[in-house]
Amino acid sequence: MIVVDNSESSRNGDYPPSRFEAQSDAVSRIFSTKTQANPESSVGLMTMGGKGPEVLVTLTTDFGKVLDGLHRTKIRGGSHLTTGIQVAGLALKHRQNKMQRQRIIVFTCSPIQEDEKSLVKLARKMKKNNISIDLIAFGELDPDISKKLEAFNENVKGGDGSHLAIIPPGPHLLSEALQATPILSGDGLGGADGAGGAGGAGGAEGGEGGAGGPGGFDFGVDPSMDPELALALRMSYEEEKARVEKEKREREEREAKSNLAGIPEEGGEASAVGDKKDEAPKEAGPDKRDEGKDGDVDDADKMDTA
Fold this sequence. Notes:
This protein is an alpha/beta fold. The chain contains nine helices and six strands. The chain has a six-stranded mixed β-sheet with strand order 3-2-1-4-5-6, sandwiched between helices.
């Protein structure tokens, strides 16, 4: 779920063309990066400004719905960071595909009304529910806001990776600066290394060493950067490994059957030898009798001749 800040602070133009338009461009970059890295990924959109958080688009793979939600968004009121994160967590809880990892990406460019204690409590709750949260803080952030966000990030961090990106104002686009952060750089690198990882999985016939990748991570992807891509590559590798093992077992079974077919049954060879021995006298007998008859004829002939 992507949570955008549509409070009055998003009207500021220190991020060209404005803070809200910069968020819209960054949302497009996040959507394309996530869905290209893993076709099974889905993205939802919600706001946390105005009177309260509002879910604009539930989890979807249709970018048109996300664009429509951004166009319908109105800038008003203040931000509700804590409530927005809680609503996003509920939206992820009711996702259709339970195999998908849960991640919330929050844009914030306005003052944070919640105190540090309540933020830390929420962070621990999200971590307990296995929800990763990436915070993208931009705008003129005072030390108090930065301290709150850092405390939240420290308590929500887990194995799936939760990041805090603080992007100061400048001539660069917010989406370009975001691409260089761990929030998206893992996906971008994962897309390139993913092909190599798939090749390693496909080469599992030659051995099981194809799972390793550059950097010491399986398939070259850091799970803390992009758990979705790492899981997809791991599942693909396991499926390929199971297929290769099945083919190997079937080939061994066929070879075993062919070897058994060439082995005679017990006692078969001995009986064959015995049959040959029995047949030998029978074949020799008639020959001797014929010889005897011939001898008698010869003798008779001799006698007649005599």
